[in-house]
Write a sequence for this structure.
């Protein structure tokens, strides 16, 4: 998606990653090459002669070390904060003030009075833990397949610094590749750090995944060699491990294996402590008693978004994807405290898709079985998207995989265009892959302050898409069984939204789907209910437990829940960024942590303002 033209150059890579983040991709998969000759990690598949011998320099102009917009940016310096919960109060913990190096991602997002900044996309009354690998596609692969390159001579090695490197002004052309000396880990981490900075206190503060496939760069004097093993004497050493370089830029944002292990060890002191307002849903983890009887622990649980993002102020997980045979001697254990090991956050599911993008085999949805161990598959992913020239087919495939509990991976350019020059195509793909809210929803933001259009329904006449309606309407309610996240029922009686707590049978609770897979089970329950009705002549809509009754644009789950992020003064003239809606959440589940595509983001806000950064290229503003 970024290197399909074999250009491994700093500016192009940074622009591509910037665009992918801007349009809503959450998982970035990178082929990372160890260059033995220079003792450095590179994104270029071949070793480079840092003296430029036997290569043709490519003058590409000065590359920015990050996505700096200099004087052309209107983005202010960002104060990075997080909330520490103590009792019923939340006091900000202020990080260092950093100068923004990305164009402001706040351009064009909704603002509303009465809300505090730095909000998560979690609903107020329940944890956003969920089942199955939820998400419509939010993953991208920054990689190009191997191809033959010309021969050349190797030269002396250069050491790699773990700090940000100023990219060179020239590159090297070796066979079909165009590579700059400095394209490496910092090319990616600088962009991510800047992105985290400018989105720290707004609704774009989503969680990201950075996955590295460990490769060995082909020798400079034999670029076609993809079989020779790495020299054990020239493998990465202390200071040059992947974790060393990740920590140098992203340590303040990283959720690490060490942190997960520590928090799992005693849930009563971590995720279920008395000061945690939104713990993860216990039905998605196995809990066992501690030997001393003081609490419980888990071997497979994950924290809720409220904990990992709002309380801890963390934004990214790093992991090793695959390690090729040439790099089997790389010391993965050296990264173990910082980076998740291969296979820990990915589980490739074999799927079969039809020509129109429908999942024919491999779907985790099973109408006859709703138990979590069967319906849920840890970190399920699939890169089996159709290579189709019609964008809707690819989007439909991503959406169908998502509803099957499988996160789609996009590892090919859309319509033959990379994300560098055609971010609009990728935005369209994301938009067409959304589940949950219908187009132009939630629409109550366009209504008057006195309107009662603050509650949501699922409309079966529109494939179960969510719509905002008047809360005083009378509809039946969607109910979820308390101990089974995939078991839904429909209330017997119709009533106004405000009677939601009284509507469901014992053992069931008024609910809203939290993942695409849950949503599929919920829609199946609605259809089953309608199939058994003989005199149902009303519009087939059902109440969902999500509303912004308390504070406009602050969508919470429940009936009388208050917006947890509103300011005390309720100053309606104070421009603060609002909370995104429920389904754009991070889900932490049985043995999976993944991101749902921002199905709940305001789909009406599809036209984004653009700004031109230094160097002349466009950066697409992050959509709300």
């Amino acid at each position: 998606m970024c290197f399909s033209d074999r250009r491994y150059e700093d500016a192009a890579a940074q622009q591509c990653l910037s665009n992918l983040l801007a349009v809503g991709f959450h998982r970035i998969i990178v082929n990372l090459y160890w260059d033995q000759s220079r003792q450095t990690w590179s994104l270029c598949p071949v070793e480079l002669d840092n003296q430029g011998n036997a290569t043709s320099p490519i003058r590409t102009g000065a590359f920015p070390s990050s996505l700096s917009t200099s004087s052309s940016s209107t983005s202010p310096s960002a104060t990075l904060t997080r909330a520490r919960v103590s009792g019923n109060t939340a006091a900000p913990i202020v990080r260092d003030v950093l100068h923004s190096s990305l164009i402001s991602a706040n351009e064009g997002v909704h603002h509303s009075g009465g809300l505090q900044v730095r909000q998560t996309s979690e609903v107020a009354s329940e944890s956003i833990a969920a089942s199955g690998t939820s998400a419509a596609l939010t993953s991208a692969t920054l990689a190009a397949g191997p191809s033959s390159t010309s021969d050349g001579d190797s030269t002396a090695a250069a050491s790699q610094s773990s700090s940000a490197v100023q990219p060179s002004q020239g590159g090297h052309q070796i066979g079909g590749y165009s590579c700059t000396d400095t394209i490496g880990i910092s090319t990616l981490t600088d962009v991510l750090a800047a992105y985290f900075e400018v989105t720290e206190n707004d609704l774009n503060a989503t969680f990201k995944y950075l996955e590295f496939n460990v490769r060995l760069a082909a020798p400079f004097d034999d670029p076609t060699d993809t079989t020779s093993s790495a020299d054990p004497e020239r493998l990465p050493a202390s200071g040059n491990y992947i974790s060393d370089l990740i920590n140098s830029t992203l340590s303040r944002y990283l959720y690490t294996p060490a942190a997960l292990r520590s928090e799992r060890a005693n849930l009563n002191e971590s995720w279920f402590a008395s000061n945690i307002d939104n713990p993860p849903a216990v039905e998605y983890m196995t809990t066992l008693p501690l030997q001393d009887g003081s609490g419980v622990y888990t071997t497979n649980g994950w924290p809720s978004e409220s904990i990992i993002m709002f309380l801890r102020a963390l934004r990214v997980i790093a992991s090793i994807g695959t390690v090729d045979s040439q790099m089997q001697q790389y010391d993965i254990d050296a990264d173990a405290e910082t980076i998740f090991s291969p296979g820990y956050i990915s589980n490739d599911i074999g799927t079969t898709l039809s020509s129109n993008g429908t999942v024919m085999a491999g779907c985790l949805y099973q109408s006859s079985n709703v138990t979590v161990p069967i319906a849920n598959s840890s970190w399920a992913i699939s890169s089996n998207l159709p290579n189709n020239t019609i964008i809707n087919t690819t989007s439909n495939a991503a959406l169908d995989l998502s509803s099957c509990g499988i996160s789609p991976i996009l590892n090919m350019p859309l319509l033959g265009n990379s994300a560098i020059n055609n971010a609009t195509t990728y935005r369209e793909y994301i938009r067409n892959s959304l589940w949950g809210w219908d187009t132009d929803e939630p629409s109550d933001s366009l209504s008057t302050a006195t309107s009662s259009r603050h509650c949501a329904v699922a409309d079966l006449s529109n494939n179960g898409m969510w719509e905002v309606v008047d809360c005083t309407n009378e509809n039946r309610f969607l109910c979820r069984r308390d101990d089974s996240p995939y078991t839904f029922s429909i209330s017997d009686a119709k009533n106004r939204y405000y009677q939601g707590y009284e509507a469901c049978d014992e053992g069931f609770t008024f609910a809203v789907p939290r993942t695409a897979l849950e949503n599929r089970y919920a829609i199946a329950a609605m259809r089953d209910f309608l199939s058994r009705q003989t005199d149902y002549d009303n519009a087939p809509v059902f109440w969902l437990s999500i509303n912004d009754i308390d504070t406009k644009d602050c969508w919470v789950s429940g009936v009388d829940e208050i917006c947890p992020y509103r300011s005390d003064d309720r100053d309606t003239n104070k421009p603060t960024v609002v909370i995104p809606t429920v389904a754009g959440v991070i889900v932490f589940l049985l043995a999976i942590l993944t991101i749902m595509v921002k199905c709940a983001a305001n789909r009406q806000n599809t036209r984004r303002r653009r700004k031109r950064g230094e160097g002349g290229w466009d950066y697409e503003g992050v959509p709300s």
